[in-house]
Structures are given as C-alpha cells and as structure tokens.
Write a structure and sequence with these properties.
There is one protein chain. A five-stranded antiparallel sheet has the order 4-3-2-1-5. It contains one helix and five strands. The chain is 9% helix and 52% strand. It has one domain. The chain starts with 10 loop residues before the first strand and ends with a strand.
Length: 69
C-alpha cells in the first residue's frame, strides 16, 4: 500500500486542470486508479488510468489532493 491513499471521489487539482478519482481496480500488480479529467482553459476532458506505482512525492507536488466525502 502506498503512502498517498487515493479513494473514489478524491480530487486532484492543478491550475485549470481538475481530476476526480472515478474507479479503483485491484490487479495482480497493484491498484489502478481511473481518473476523469477536465481542462477548463481548453474546454477538454478525458480519462486516464494511473498505476499506484506512479503515486509518489513528485506526483503529489504537482497536484493539490482534496479528499472526497
């Protein structure tokens, strides 16, 4: 388990970029986080899958992490 625990409903915010954790899938290699993103400045949106191995100090330096309720 990693130090930075993401849960469904958590927000990741950076400037005009906002992501919400939509789904968490457990695999043999660890957790995979599905995140819906919106980029307000460009009017774009999309989904990414982030493996838990990428969640580290450097990742969270770039984003403000807001816990969902």
């Amino acid at each position: 388990m990693n130090k930075w625990n993401l849960e469904v409903g958590d927000l990741l915010i950076r400037d005009e970029e906002v992501g919400i954790v939509h789904k968490i899938k457990e695999t043999t290699w660890g957790l995979i986080y599905s995140v819906y993103w919106t980029w307000n400045k460009d009017g774009l949106f999309g989904t990414t899958k982030i493996p838990e191995q990428l969640l580290c100090y450097e990742f969270f330096k770039k984003f403000e992490h807001v816990k969902g309720k």
